[in-house]
Predict the structure.
Amino acid sequence: MCWHPQLRDPADEMVLETAINDQADALVTFKRRDYDAPGRFGIELLAPHEALLRIRL
């Protein structure tokens, strides 16, 4: 697959690409507004507090 930039910040591309390649269920970040692409790949975008709430359940 040919990778095309998906995010505003080029430094975040590696994070998204790794999540996609590893078939992650979610991506956890404080920088939510910088990540508008994960949903296109079936990856849920969570803030850290949201991820912690899910772990506790």
